[in-house]
Amino acid sequence: MRLHYLQHVPFEDPGSILIWAKENDCVITNTQLYKNDPFPKQHDFDWLVVMGGPMNIYDEEIYPWLADEKVFIREAIAAGKVIIGLCLGGQLIADVIGGKVTQNPYKEIGWFPVRLSEEARSSPLFSFFPHQPVVFQWHGDTFSVLPEEVKCIAENDACKHQAFIYKDRVFGFQYHMENTPAIIEGLVENCRDEMVPDVYVQTPEELLEHPEYIAQNNAWMNMFLTQLEKMYRQGEL
Hints:
Layout: E1 2-7, H1 16-23, E2 27-32, E3 47-50, H2 65-78, E4 82-86, H3 88-96, E5 100-113, E6 115-116, H4 118-121, E7 134-145, E8 151-155, E9 163-166, E10 170-173, H5 181-191, H6 204-208, H7 211-233
Parallel strand pairs: 1-2, 1-3, 3-4, 4-10
Antiparallel strand pairs: 5-7, 6-8, 8-9, 9-10
């Protein structure tokens, strides 16, 4: 399997997803958008992972490549690729399929539980998750409006739409399960100014003092990817 990922800043790579991909003998390629790397042809990859980043989806004047990225994601969806969007990546997907991305009522930074829908937990892709997994959050915007054909599969008190599925093989997550300690340290180092005390904003110390949460999130991501690949190979998506 050929996995391609889009990366927006040097300190947010796919983390545990890369570890899983290497362990499963995937061919891994990437586009470093902050370096103005070119996009691949659609026939050159099977799965697409769209990473997070501190920019917003509408910051095209500051980051001109965002416009081209949206076109590329739209083409990947039309080509039937398996796509996983994380935070900004999920927001970009939501935008290109006709949703709306706006400022969330609360900024979420830290470790917070989300509630998975019963429908999601009845799916093999999510059946191993607890009802309220504690996951890593770092966002101010969110996909506040989703098209009717999209299934929202997770929510919490801070943010109505935490995860969604589109056409059975496109997944948008507002939260992160792929982050490693190094990625979280990079976020704190590079985006500390966003950590203004609020209801759902934890301190840098709180973000970094839970290695057990990181390990559990990575394990969940691993199980999700393993089941997703199994269903993909069996033609069940």
